[in-house]
Protein backbone atom coordinates (compact mmCIF):
# COMPACT_ATOMS: atom_id res chain seq x y z
CA UNK A 1 0.00 0.00 0.00
CA UNK A 2 2.82 2.39 0.90
CA UNK A 3 4.64 1.40 -2.28
CA UNK A 4 1.62 2.29 -4.40
CA UNK A 5 1.27 5.67 -2.69
CA UNK A 6 4.98 6.43 -3.22
CA UNK A 7 4.78 5.37 -6.87
CA UNK A 8 1.74 7.61 -7.41
CA UNK A 9 3.63 10.60 -5.98
CA UNK A 10 6.61 9.96 -8.28
CA UNK A 11 4.34 9.77 -11.34
CA UNK A 12 2.61 13.01 -10.29
CA UNK A 13 5.97 14.80 -9.87
CA UNK A 14 7.11 13.52 -13.25
CA UNK A 15 3.95 14.83 -14.93
CA UNK A 16 4.38 18.22 -13.26
CA UNK A 17 7.95 18.45 -14.56
CA UNK A 18 6.82 17.72 -18.11
CA UNK A 19 4.00 20.27 -17.84
CA UNK A 20 6.45 22.89 -16.55
CA UNK A 21 8.93 22.13 -19.32
CA UNK A 22 6.20 22.35 -21.95
CA UNK A 23 5.10 25.71 -20.52
CA UNK A 24 8.65 27.08 -20.73
CA UNK A 25 8.99 25.95 -24.35
CA UNK A 26 5.67 27.53 -25.31
CA UNK A 27 6.60 30.77 -23.53
CA UNK A 28 9.93 30.95 -25.36
CA UNK A 29 8.23 30.25 -28.68
CA UNK A 30 5.63 32.95 -27.99
CA UNK A 31 8.30 35.52 -27.12
CA UNK A 32 10.28 34.66 -30.25
CA UNK A 33 7.18 34.98 -32.45
CA UNK A 34 6.22 38.27 -30.82
CA UNK A 35 9.77 39.61 -31.39
CA UNK A 36 9.68 38.71 -35.08
CA UNK A 37 6.23 40.26 -35.57
CA UNK A 38 7.20 43.46 -33.78
CA UNK A 39 10.42 43.77 -35.77
CA UNK A 40 9.24 43.04 -39.29
CA UNK A 41 5.48 43.64 -39.45
CA UNK A 42 5.86 47.39 -39.87
CA UNK A 43 8.35 47.17 -42.73
CA UNK A 44 6.37 44.40 -44.43
CA UNK A 45 3.13 46.37 -44.23
CA UNK A 46 4.76 49.37 -45.92
CA UNK A 47 6.57 47.31 -48.59
CA UNK A 48 9.99 48.80 -47.77
CA UNK A 49 13.07 47.66 -49.62
CA UNK A 50 15.54 45.06 -48.37
CA UNK A 51 18.23 47.69 -47.98
CA UNK A 52 15.95 49.81 -45.79
CA UNK A 53 15.11 46.79 -43.59
CA UNK A 54 18.83 46.17 -43.12
CA UNK A 55 19.42 49.78 -42.10
CA UNK A 56 16.65 49.77 -39.50
CA UNK A 57 17.98 46.59 -37.90
CA UNK A 58 21.64 47.70 -37.80
CA UNK A 59 21.37 51.35 -36.75
CA UNK A 60 19.58 53.04 -33.89
CA UNK A 61 17.32 55.06 -36.20
CA UNK A 62 13.99 53.40 -37.02
CA UNK A 63 11.90 56.02 -38.84
CA UNK A 64 8.20 56.29 -38.11
CA UNK A 65 5.91 57.39 -40.93
CA UNK A 66 2.21 58.15 -41.06
CA UNK A 67 0.27 55.20 -42.50
CA UNK A 68 -2.26 57.37 -44.31
CA UNK A 69 0.29 59.84 -45.61
CA UNK A 70 -0.65 62.76 -47.83
CA UNK A 71 0.24 62.71 -51.50
CA UNK A 72 4.00 63.30 -51.76
CA UNK A 73 4.45 62.41 -55.40
CA UNK A 74 6.78 64.83 -57.24
CA UNK A 75 3.88 66.03 -59.37
CA UNK A 76 1.65 67.06 -56.45
CA UNK A 77 1.24 70.73 -55.58
CA UNK A 78 2.21 70.20 -51.93
CA UNK A 79 5.43 68.40 -52.89
CA UNK A 80 6.45 71.20 -55.26
CA UNK A 81 5.90 73.79 -52.55
CA UNK A 82 7.80 71.91 -49.85
CA UNK A 83 10.53 70.17 -51.81
CA UNK A 84 10.43 71.46 -55.38
CA UNK A 85 13.11 73.62 -57.04
CA UNK A 86 13.11 77.42 -56.86
CA UNK A 87 11.89 78.32 -60.35
CA UNK A 88 13.10 81.92 -60.20
CA UNK A 89 16.74 80.76 -60.05
CA UNK A 90 16.65 78.27 -62.91
CA UNK A 91 18.61 80.61 -65.17
CA UNK A 92 21.66 80.59 -62.85
CA UNK A 93 24.33 78.10 -63.89
CA UNK A 94 27.79 77.46 -62.32
CA UNK A 95 30.60 78.95 -64.36
CA UNK A 96 33.91 79.64 -62.65
CA UNK A 97 36.24 79.22 -65.64
CA UNK A 98 38.43 82.17 -66.70
CA UNK A 99 36.74 84.47 -69.21
CA UNK A 100 39.65 86.72 -70.18
CA UNK A 101 43.34 86.25 -70.95
CA UNK A 102 44.62 84.09 -68.11
CA UNK A 103 48.28 83.03 -68.44
CA UNK A 104 49.46 79.68 -67.13
CA UNK A 105 51.75 80.02 -64.05
CA UNK A 106 55.51 79.73 -64.37
CA UNK A 107 56.51 76.11 -63.85
CA UNK A 108 59.64 76.90 -61.81
CA UNK A 109 59.26 79.84 -59.48
CA UNK A 110 61.89 80.98 -56.99
CA UNK A 111 59.28 82.40 -54.60
CA UNK A 112 57.46 80.25 -52.07
CA UNK A 113 54.45 81.03 -49.90
CA UNK A 114 54.04 78.85 -46.81
CA UNK A 115 50.71 79.17 -44.95
CA UNK A 116 49.83 78.01 -41.43
CA UNK A 117 46.09 78.03 -40.75
CA UNK A 118 44.32 78.01 -37.38
CA UNK A 119 40.63 77.88 -36.61
CA UNK A 120 37.55 75.76 -37.19
CA UNK A 121 36.24 74.02 -40.29
CA UNK A 122 34.74 77.06 -42.02
CA UNK A 123 37.76 79.24 -41.18
CA UNK A 124 40.16 76.65 -42.60
CA UNK A 125 38.18 76.33 -45.82
CA UNK A 126 37.98 80.10 -46.35
CA UNK A 127 41.67 80.56 -45.56
CA UNK A 128 42.76 77.93 -48.12
CA UNK A 129 40.75 79.69 -50.85
CA UNK A 130 42.36 83.03 -49.99
CA UNK A 131 45.87 81.52 -49.77
CA UNK A 132 45.60 80.25 -53.36
CA UNK A 133 44.51 83.71 -54.59
CA UNK A 134 47.37 85.39 -52.69
CA UNK A 135 49.91 82.98 -54.23
CA UNK A 136 48.57 83.79 -57.71
CA UNK A 137 48.60 87.53 -56.94
CA UNK A 138 52.28 87.39 -55.85
CA UNK A 139 53.26 85.00 -58.68
CA UNK A 140 54.63 82.56 -56.09
CA UNK A 141 54.66 78.81 -55.60
CA UNK A 142 52.26 77.70 -52.89
CA UNK A 143 53.34 75.06 -50.40
CA UNK A 144 50.45 72.82 -49.35
CA UNK A 145 48.91 74.76 -46.40
CA UNK A 146 49.48 73.43 -42.90
CA UNK A 147 46.35 73.03 -40.78
CA UNK A 148 47.42 73.55 -37.17
CA UNK A 149 44.50 71.58 -35.70
CA UNK A 150 45.56 68.40 -37.54
CA UNK A 151 49.30 68.19 -36.89
CA UNK A 152 50.75 65.03 -35.33
CA UNK A 153 51.29 66.82 -32.00
CA UNK A 154 47.49 66.83 -31.54
CA UNK A 155 47.45 63.05 -30.99
CA UNK A 156 45.96 62.12 -34.36
CA UNK A 157 46.99 59.26 -36.64
CA UNK A 158 50.51 59.49 -38.07
CA UNK A 159 49.31 58.30 -41.49
CA UNK A 160 47.84 61.76 -42.22
CA UNK A 161 49.87 64.94 -42.57
CA UNK A 162 47.98 68.10 -41.71
CA UNK A 163 46.22 69.08 -44.97
CA UNK A 164 45.73 65.43 -45.96
CA UNK A 165 43.78 64.81 -42.73
CA UNK A 166 40.83 66.63 -44.31
CA UNK A 167 41.44 67.05 -48.03
CA UNK A 168 42.79 65.14 -51.01
CA UNK A 169 46.23 66.64 -51.72
CA UNK A 170 46.68 65.16 -55.21
CA UNK A 171 43.27 66.36 -56.39
CA UNK A 172 43.96 69.82 -54.93
CA UNK A 173 47.23 70.11 -56.86
CA UNK A 174 45.90 68.77 -60.17
CA UNK A 175 42.69 70.84 -60.11
CA UNK A 176 44.70 74.08 -59.79
CA UNK A 177 47.55 73.15 -62.16
CA UNK A 178 46.51 75.90 -64.61
CA UNK A 179 46.21 78.51 -61.87
CA UNK A 180 49.24 78.24 -59.60
CA UNK A 181 52.21 75.98 -58.96
CA UNK A 182 51.73 73.89 -55.81
CA UNK A 183 54.36 71.75 -54.05
CA UNK A 184 53.99 69.51 -51.01
CA UNK A 185 57.06 70.73 -49.12
CA UNK A 186 59.63 73.50 -49.19
CA UNK A 187 62.96 72.88 -50.98
CA UNK A 188 65.73 71.42 -48.81
CA UNK A 189 67.61 74.71 -48.79
CA UNK A 190 64.62 76.44 -47.15
CA UNK A 191 63.52 73.66 -44.80
CA UNK A 192 66.47 74.24 -42.51
CA UNK A 193 65.79 77.97 -42.40
CA UNK A 194 62.20 77.27 -41.41
CA UNK A 195 63.27 74.94 -38.59
CA UNK A 196 65.59 77.66 -37.29
CA UNK A 197 62.75 80.18 -37.69
CA UNK A 198 64.86 82.29 -40.03
CA UNK A 199 62.21 82.83 -42.71
CA UNK A 200 60.10 86.03 -42.52
CA UNK A 201 56.65 85.52 -41.05
CA UNK A 202 53.51 87.64 -41.31
CA UNK A 203 50.57 87.33 -38.94
CA UNK A 204 47.77 88.14 -41.36
CA UNK A 205 44.47 89.49 -40.13
CA UNK A 206 41.09 88.91 -41.67
CA UNK A 207 40.11 90.75 -44.87
CA UNK A 208 43.50 92.17 -45.80
CA UNK A 209 43.52 94.12 -49.06
CA UNK A 210 45.55 93.19 -52.16
CA UNK A 211 47.54 96.39 -51.51
CA UNK A 212 48.89 94.88 -48.28
CA UNK A 213 50.32 91.85 -50.08
CA UNK A 214 51.72 93.80 -53.03
CA UNK A 215 53.41 96.49 -50.90
CA UNK A 216 54.32 94.64 -47.69
CA UNK A 217 54.67 90.93 -48.40
CA UNK A 218 55.97 90.99 -51.99
CA UNK A 219 59.15 93.06 -51.30
CA UNK A 220 60.10 90.67 -48.47
CA UNK A 221 59.29 87.68 -50.67
CA UNK A 222 61.63 88.96 -53.40
CA UNK A 223 64.49 89.39 -50.93
CA UNK A 224 64.15 86.07 -49.07
CA UNK A 225 62.46 83.85 -51.73
CA UNK A 226 60.07 82.60 -49.06
CA UNK A 227 57.45 84.08 -46.75
CA UNK A 228 55.27 82.48 -44.09
CA UNK A 229 51.68 83.59 -43.55
CA UNK A 230 50.00 82.79 -40.23
CA UNK A 231 46.22 82.95 -40.66
CA UNK A 232 44.12 82.59 -37.51
CA UNK A 233 40.98 84.64 -38.15
CA UNK A 234 39.56 82.72 -41.10
CA UNK A 235 40.21 84.28 -44.48
CA UNK A 236 43.27 86.42 -45.21
CA UNK A 237 41.90 88.45 -48.13
CA UNK A 238 38.99 90.85 -48.41
CA UNK A 239 35.71 89.26 -49.51
CA UNK A 240 34.91 91.61 -52.42
CA UNK A 241 37.90 92.24 -54.70
CA UNK A 242 38.27 95.26 -57.01
CA UNK A 243 36.80 94.97 -60.54
CA UNK A 244 40.25 94.60 -62.12
CA UNK A 245 40.78 91.43 -60.04
CA UNK A 246 37.57 89.75 -61.20
CA UNK A 247 39.44 86.65 -62.38
CA UNK A 248 40.82 86.17 -58.88
CA UNK A 249 37.28 86.10 -57.57
CA UNK A 250 36.53 83.24 -59.99
CA UNK A 251 39.69 81.51 -58.83
CA UNK A 252 38.21 81.48 -55.32
CA UNK A 253 35.18 79.62 -56.69
CA UNK A 254 37.37 77.06 -58.45
CA UNK A 255 39.21 76.38 -55.20
CA UNK A 256 36.10 76.16 -53.00
CA UNK A 257 33.84 74.16 -55.30
CA UNK A 258 36.26 72.10 -57.42
CA UNK A 259 39.73 71.82 -55.88
CA UNK A 260 38.85 71.27 -52.21
CA UNK A 261 37.74 67.66 -52.24
CA UNK A 262 37.65 65.66 -49.00
CA UNK A 263 39.82 62.57 -48.70
CA UNK A 264 38.34 59.30 -49.87
CA UNK A 265 37.41 57.83 -46.46
CA UNK A 266 35.40 60.93 -45.52
CA UNK A 267 33.60 60.98 -48.86
CA UNK A 268 32.71 57.29 -48.61
CA UNK A 269 31.18 57.66 -45.14
CA UNK A 270 29.23 60.77 -46.14
CA UNK A 271 27.90 58.90 -49.17
CA UNK A 272 26.78 56.01 -46.94
CA UNK A 273 24.91 58.42 -44.67
CA UNK A 274 23.19 60.00 -47.67
CA UNK A 275 22.13 56.56 -48.94
CA UNK A 276 20.72 55.67 -45.52
CA UNK A 277 18.82 58.96 -45.33
CA UNK A 278 17.31 58.40 -48.77
CA UNK A 279 16.62 54.66 -48.26
CA UNK A 280 12.99 55.22 -47.09
CA UNK A 281 12.32 56.90 -50.44
CA UNK A 282 11.56 60.32 -48.96
CA UNK A 283 13.30 63.72 -49.19
CA UNK A 284 14.97 65.10 -46.05
CA UNK A 285 15.85 68.41 -44.42
CA UNK A 286 19.35 69.28 -43.18
CA UNK A 287 19.30 71.67 -40.21
CA UNK A 288 22.35 73.46 -38.81
CA UNK A 289 21.59 74.98 -35.36
CA UNK A 290 24.63 77.30 -35.37
CA UNK A 291 24.48 77.43 -31.55
CA UNK A 292 28.15 77.62 -30.62
CA UNK A 293 29.41 79.15 -27.40
CA UNK A 294 31.60 81.69 -29.22
CA UNK A 295 28.74 82.90 -31.44
CA UNK A 296 26.39 83.24 -28.48
CA UNK A 297 29.02 85.17 -26.50
CA UNK A 298 29.96 87.46 -29.38
CA UNK A 299 26.36 88.46 -30.11
CA UNK A 300 25.29 88.74 -26.44
CA UNK A 301 22.76 85.90 -26.29
CA UNK A 302 23.55 84.62 -22.79
CA UNK A 303 20.06 85.13 -21.33
CA UNK A 304 18.51 82.72 -23.82
CA UNK A 305 19.95 79.97 -21.62
CA UNK A 306 19.76 79.25 -17.89
CA UNK A 307 22.01 78.70 -14.89
CA UNK A 308 25.52 77.55 -15.75
CA UNK A 309 25.17 78.04 -19.50
CA UNK A 310 24.48 81.75 -19.05
CA UNK A 311 27.58 82.07 -16.86
CA UNK A 312 29.70 80.13 -19.34
CA UNK A 313 28.64 82.43 -22.18
CA UNK A 314 29.31 85.51 -20.07
CA UNK A 315 32.72 84.14 -19.10
CA UNK A 316 33.56 83.73 -22.78
CA UNK A 317 32.29 87.22 -23.62
CA UNK A 318 34.51 88.70 -20.89
CA UNK A 319 37.47 86.87 -22.44
CA UNK A 320 36.56 88.37 -25.85
CA UNK A 321 36.23 91.88 -24.39
CA UNK A 322 39.70 91.72 -22.83
CA UNK A 323 41.24 90.74 -26.18
CA UNK A 324 39.32 93.25 -28.25
CA UNK A 325 37.44 90.61 -30.24
CA UNK A 326 34.10 92.16 -29.34
CA UNK A 327 33.27 95.73 -28.38
CA UNK A 328 30.62 96.91 -25.97
CA UNK A 329 29.71 95.93 -22.43
CA UNK A 330 29.61 92.58 -20.67
CA UNK A 331 25.89 92.80 -19.94
CA UNK A 332 23.69 92.78 -23.04
CA UNK A 333 19.91 92.64 -23.33
CA UNK A 334 19.56 89.22 -24.96
CA UNK A 335 15.85 89.68 -25.66
CA UNK A 336 16.57 92.86 -27.62
CA UNK A 337 19.35 91.06 -29.50
CA UNK A 338 17.00 88.21 -30.26
CA UNK A 339 14.26 90.53 -31.58
CA UNK A 340 16.92 92.30 -33.62
CA UNK A 341 17.84 89.00 -35.30
CA UNK A 342 21.33 88.87 -33.79
CA UNK A 343 20.79 85.55 -31.96
CA UNK A 344 20.29 82.04 -33.33
CA UNK A 345 16.78 80.68 -33.66
CA UNK A 346 16.22 78.02 -31.01
CA UNK A 347 15.46 74.45 -32.21
CA UNK A 348 11.84 74.67 -31.03
CA UNK A 349 11.37 77.86 -33.08
CA UNK A 350 12.73 76.12 -36.17
CA UNK A 351 10.32 73.24 -35.51
CA UNK A 352 7.32 75.56 -35.23
CA UNK A 353 8.27 77.40 -38.44
CA UNK A 354 8.65 74.17 -40.42
CA UNK A 355 5.35 72.76 -39.14
CA UNK A 356 3.60 76.04 -39.94
CA UNK A 357 5.05 75.97 -43.46
CA UNK A 358 3.51 72.56 -44.04
CA UNK A 359 6.12 69.90 -43.23
CA UNK A 360 4.49 66.92 -41.53
CA UNK A 361 5.57 65.50 -38.18
CA UNK A 362 7.22 62.48 -39.84
CA UNK A 363 9.61 64.58 -41.98
CA UNK A 364 13.23 63.37 -41.81
CA UNK A 365 15.50 66.06 -40.29
CA UNK A 366 19.28 65.67 -40.20
CA UNK A 367 21.07 67.70 -37.49
CA UNK A 368 24.48 68.94 -38.62
CA UNK A 369 27.28 70.89 -36.96
CA UNK A 370 29.96 69.92 -34.46
CA UNK A 371 28.54 71.60 -31.36
CA UNK A 372 25.10 72.43 -30.00
CA UNK A 373 25.75 74.53 -26.93
CA UNK A 374 23.66 73.31 -24.04
CA UNK A 375 23.83 69.68 -25.14
CA UNK A 376 21.23 67.34 -26.55
CA UNK A 377 18.58 68.59 -24.13
CA UNK A 378 18.27 71.72 -26.28
CA UNK A 379 17.07 69.48 -29.12
CA UNK A 380 14.35 67.76 -27.04
CA UNK A 381 11.59 70.19 -28.18
CA UNK A 382 12.51 69.56 -31.83
CA UNK A 383 12.33 65.79 -31.21
CA UNK A 384 8.86 66.33 -29.74
CA UNK A 385 7.68 68.20 -32.85
CA UNK A 386 9.27 65.88 -35.43
CA UNK A 387 9.56 62.13 -35.03
CA UNK A 388 12.51 61.44 -37.37
CA UNK A 389 15.30 63.70 -36.11
CA UNK A 390 18.73 62.11 -36.68
CA UNK A 391 22.43 62.96 -36.86
CA UNK A 392 25.64 61.21 -37.92
CA UNK A 393 25.82 59.11 -34.73
CA UNK A 394 22.44 57.46 -35.33
CA UNK A 395 23.26 56.68 -38.96
CA UNK A 396 26.74 55.22 -38.51
CA UNK A 397 28.39 52.61 -36.36
CA UNK A 398 31.30 53.45 -34.02
CA UNK A 399 33.51 51.27 -36.19
CA UNK A 400 32.75 53.38 -39.27
CA UNK A 401 33.59 56.60 -37.45
CA UNK A 402 36.81 55.15 -36.02
CA UNK A 403 37.85 54.04 -39.49
CA UNK A 404 38.15 57.62 -40.78
CA UNK A 405 40.38 58.58 -37.83
CA UNK A 406 43.07 56.07 -38.81
CA UNK A 407 45.34 54.30 -36.33
CA UNK A 408 45.75 56.49 -33.28
CA UNK A 409 48.09 55.99 -30.33
CA UNK A 410 46.77 55.10 -26.89
CA UNK A 411 47.08 58.46 -25.18
CA UNK A 412 46.57 56.98 -21.71
CA UNK A 413 49.74 54.90 -22.08
CA UNK A 414 51.66 57.49 -24.06
CA UNK A 415 51.05 60.31 -21.59
CA UNK A 416 51.22 58.83 -18.07
CA UNK A 417 50.10 60.74 -15.03
CA UNK A 418 52.64 62.85 -13.20
CA UNK A 419 54.30 61.17 -10.16
CA UNK A 420 53.17 62.28 -6.68
CA UNK A 421 54.95 65.28 -5.21
CA UNK A 422 57.77 64.90 -2.70
CA UNK A 423 55.62 66.53 0.02
CA UNK A 424 52.93 63.84 -0.34
CA UNK A 425 55.58 61.11 -0.22
CA UNK A 426 56.99 62.59 3.02
CA UNK A 427 53.50 62.69 4.59
CA UNK A 428 52.87 59.07 3.68
CA UNK A 429 56.26 57.96 5.03
CA UNK A 430 55.63 59.90 8.25
CA UNK A 431 52.27 58.17 8.63
CA UNK A 432 53.92 54.74 8.20
CA UNK A 433 56.44 55.37 10.99
CA UNK A 434 54.31 57.40 13.39
CA UNK A 435 53.03 56.17 16.80
CA UNK A 436 51.54 52.91 17.84
CA UNK A 437 48.68 51.20 16.14
CA UNK A 438 45.79 51.64 15.72
CA UNK A 439 46.28 54.99 14.02
CA UNK A 440 44.06 57.04 11.70
CA UNK A 441 43.84 56.27 8.02
CA UNK A 442 46.26 58.07 5.67
CA UNK A 443 45.04 61.27 4.03
CA UNK A 444 43.07 60.58 0.83
CA UNK A 445 44.72 61.50 -2.48
CA UNK A 446 43.82 64.87 -3.93
CA UNK A 447 40.96 64.71 -6.39
CA UNK A 448 42.07 65.77 -9.88
CA UNK A 449 40.47 68.95 -11.15
CA UNK A 450 38.20 68.08 -14.05
CA UNK A 451 35.28 69.55 -15.92
CA UNK A 452 32.58 68.35 -18.24
CA UNK A 453 31.82 70.02 -21.55
CA UNK A 454 28.05 70.03 -21.01
CA UNK A 455 27.93 70.57 -17.26
CA UNK A 456 29.42 72.83 -14.61
CA UNK A 457 32.94 74.02 -15.41
CA UNK A 458 34.59 74.48 -12.01
CA UNK A 459 37.26 76.80 -13.35
CA UNK A 460 34.73 79.55 -14.11
CA UNK A 461 34.66 80.58 -10.46
CA UNK A 462 38.40 80.05 -9.94
CA UNK A 463 40.11 81.81 -12.83
CA UNK A 464 39.54 84.21 -15.70
CA UNK A 465 41.51 81.91 -17.98
CA UNK A 466 40.14 78.67 -19.31
CA UNK A 467 42.17 75.51 -18.63
CA UNK A 468 44.68 74.43 -21.24
CA UNK A 469 43.42 71.72 -23.56
CA UNK A 470 44.68 68.20 -22.94
CA UNK A 471 46.02 66.06 -25.77
CA UNK A 472 42.78 64.07 -25.77
CA UNK A 473 40.80 67.30 -26.20
CA UNK A 474 43.10 68.40 -29.03
CA UNK A 475 42.49 65.06 -30.71
CA UNK A 476 38.74 65.51 -30.29
CA UNK A 477 38.98 68.95 -31.92
CA UNK A 478 40.67 67.31 -34.91
CA UNK A 479 37.88 64.71 -35.02
CA UNK A 480 35.31 67.53 -35.06
CA UNK A 481 36.79 68.74 -38.35
CA UNK A 482 36.03 65.33 -39.88
CA UNK A 483 32.50 65.36 -38.40
CA UNK A 484 31.85 68.78 -39.92
CA UNK A 485 33.29 67.62 -43.26
CA UNK A 486 30.74 64.77 -43.30
CA UNK A 487 27.93 67.14 -42.29
CA UNK A 488 29.05 69.60 -44.98
CA UNK A 489 28.62 67.00 -47.73
CA UNK A 490 25.24 65.90 -46.37
CA UNK A 491 23.97 69.49 -46.11
CA UNK A 492 25.09 70.37 -49.64
CA UNK A 493 23.22 67.35 -51.06
CA UNK A 494 20.11 67.71 -48.86
CA UNK A 495 16.72 68.36 -50.44
CA UNK A 496 16.19 71.35 -48.13
CA UNK A 497 18.68 73.23 -45.95
CA UNK A 498 17.66 75.27 -42.90
CA UNK A 499 20.27 77.38 -41.02
CA UNK A 500 19.53 78.39 -37.45
CA UNK A 501 22.28 81.04 -37.62
CA UNK A 502 24.79 82.14 -40.25
CA UNK A 503 27.41 84.01 -38.17
CA UNK A 504 30.32 82.63 -36.15
CA UNK A 505 32.03 83.74 -32.93
CA UNK A 506 33.69 86.69 -34.68
CA UNK A 507 30.65 88.01 -36.50
CA UNK A 508 31.74 86.51 -39.83
CA UNK A 509 30.13 83.92 -42.15
CA UNK A 510 29.88 80.50 -40.52
CA UNK A 511 29.49 76.85 -41.54
CA UNK A 512 25.90 77.49 -42.65
CA UNK A 513 27.01 80.36 -44.91
CA UNK A 514 29.52 78.11 -46.68
CA UNK A 515 26.84 75.45 -47.20
CA UNK A 516 24.37 77.95 -48.67
CA UNK A 517 27.03 79.34 -50.99
CA UNK A 518 27.99 75.87 -52.20
CA UNK A 519 24.34 74.91 -52.76
CA UNK A 520 23.73 78.12 -54.72
CA UNK A 521 26.76 77.42 -56.95
CA UNK A 522 26.14 73.70 -57.43
CA UNK A 523 22.37 73.88 -57.90
CA UNK A 524 20.85 77.33 -57.64
CA UNK A 525 17.32 75.91 -57.60
CA UNK A 526 17.93 73.78 -54.48
CA UNK A 527 15.68 74.99 -51.65
CA UNK A 528 17.56 76.76 -48.83
CA UNK A 529 15.65 78.79 -46.26
CA UNK A 530 17.06 82.19 -45.30
CA UNK A 531 14.87 82.89 -42.31
CA UNK A 532 14.24 86.43 -41.08
CA UNK A 533 15.31 86.02 -37.46
From TrEMBL:
GO terms for biological process: fucose metabolic process. Keywords: Carbohydrate metabolism, Fucose metabolism, Glycoprotein, Glycosyltransferase, Membrane, Signal-anchor, Transferase, Transmembrane, Transmembrane helix. It is found in: Membrane. It is a single-pass type II membrane protein. GO terms for molecular function: glycosyltransferase activity. InterPro entries: FucosylTrfase_pln, GDP-Fuc_O-FucTrfase. Its main location: membrane. Pfam families: O-FucT. Pathway: Glycan metabolism. One of its GO terms (cellular component) is membrane. Belongs to the glycosyltransferase GT106 family. PANTHER family: O-FUCOSYLTRANSFERASE 27, OS02G0726500 PROTEIN-RELATED. This is O-fucosyltransferase family protein. It comes from Artemisia annua (Sweet wormwood).
Amino acid sequence: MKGDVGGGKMVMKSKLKWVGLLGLVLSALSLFTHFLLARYSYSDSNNLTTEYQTITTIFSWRPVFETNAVDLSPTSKLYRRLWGPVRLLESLQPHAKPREHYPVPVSESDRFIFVRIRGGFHEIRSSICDAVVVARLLNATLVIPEIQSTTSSKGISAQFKSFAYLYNEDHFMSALANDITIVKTLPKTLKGARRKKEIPSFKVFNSQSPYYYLHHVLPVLKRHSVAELVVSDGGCLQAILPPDLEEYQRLRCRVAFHALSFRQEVQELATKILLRLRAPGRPFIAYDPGMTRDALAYHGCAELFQDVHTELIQHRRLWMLKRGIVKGSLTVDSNAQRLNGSCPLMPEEIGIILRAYGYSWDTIIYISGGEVFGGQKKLIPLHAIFENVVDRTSLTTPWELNKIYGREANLVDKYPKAPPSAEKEMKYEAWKTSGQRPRPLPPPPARPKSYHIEGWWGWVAESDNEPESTVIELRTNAHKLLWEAIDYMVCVEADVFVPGFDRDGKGRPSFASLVMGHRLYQSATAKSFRLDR
